[in-house]
Amidophosphoribosyltransferase
Amino acid sequence: MKYRILRKSSTPFDKVHEECGVFGIAAPEGKEISAAHDAYTALFALQHRGQEAAGIAVNKNGVIHCHKDVGLVSAVFNQEILDNMPGSMAIGHVRYSTTGDTRRENAQPISITHVKGNLAVAHNGNLVNAGELRREIELDGGIFRSSNDTEVLVYTIVKERLKCGSIEEAVMNTMHRIEGAYSLVVMSPRKLIAARDPHGFRPLCIGLLDNDCYIFASETCALDALGAKFIRDVEPGEVCVVENGELRSMHCGIECKSSACVFEYIYFARPDSIIDGASVELARQEAGKYLSIEHPVGADVVIGVPDSGIPAAIGYAKFSGIPYGVGLIKNRYIARTFIQPGQDKRERSVRLKLNALRTAIEGKRVIMVDDSIVRGTTCGRLVKLLRDAGAAEVHMRISAPPFRHPCFFGTDIPERNQLLAHNRTVEEMREIIGVDSLGFLSLEACRKIAVGCKLGFCDACFSGEYPIPVPEQVNKNMFETEIPLPSNKD
């Protein structure tokens, strides 16, 4: 007999889903701040990185209190909840699931009590060897409440903490055991710790609020929301420790080539963020420029698919000389998981979120710029919207190369057979989508777009060249697909 956990329903939109967002803040001893309110503000700024769940853990005099649930930040927290979470140190998290389904147990931060104290952890990324580590912990008597890889990470840190003299040493030892992508914040009774994997897959930066409160965040837009000063990015392989208002740094000792996720610049990050020294907005405009060089076409107007396709569309228009226009209007009151009107009415779902502006496109040759194509279903519906609104021609330009390979480092890219580009030519994809022409950014141009970035890139979802060994296939529900029950009564 087997117990099968029900899956969440898929969204109707053909997009790569966001990552997670992490945040941490620590005030010096004796300074009273409302860390929970600051975390709330920062998570609001990071909401684009995860819309499934949110959570905040606060530390008051060494006691950690955590509140989390599924839903948007504004739904999980209110004034009363935040007012009842006093403390001068806090970490926070917004989640999109890349391992494990959507339920409260999988929300973060994860807070536990162990023999040496309290601990709370928030994690952005995906561990390649989570399955092996979880099996090892289970055979040693460990019991898991969630189905995500973050709980595996937490237990691994605790096991290392029992063998060493400090939490930062335990984090560094853990970094030698885990493989994959992780930017994380860790809170102990006295310390706030931030760590970034040796490849630097996921972003993490350091800020300073009121000249004495250190902050860690996935993106600089969270610092801007708080009025904090940007200090620098956490380096790949670096472990930063904040204790009593002092910041110190060490390196885990694992040397390897940096491989920041190039899709942070194409889609994930907010345009106003600066990641590893490079402007996200300018990177997207550069992508549009290269698109116009590689795939020129005669047209009357360039439009972008809101929101992340807009900067690339502006770049395309600027360099090509074709006017930029607003051709698609986004309904900003619809969350990612709004109720669908039925499987036979998916086109209506798209119209609820996006609608064509007839006055901008009727009778015109339109270039529609988007950031990516995953399955291709939504693209076809958007093309129909434009044609129904009177577009004479629709030419689609994509500011990323075709997705041909799954991601194992925290991006929810489906398996190969679910990708439109898998085993198809550009012409075959064009016919399926129904556009007059289709052009993707070349891999060579993609590797140039993040002008000023200090790190190398991981573009394995396009190239298939993974920076570390990966499993043969990705299974985001690896810990909950089928759980065999024991045959005896024990």
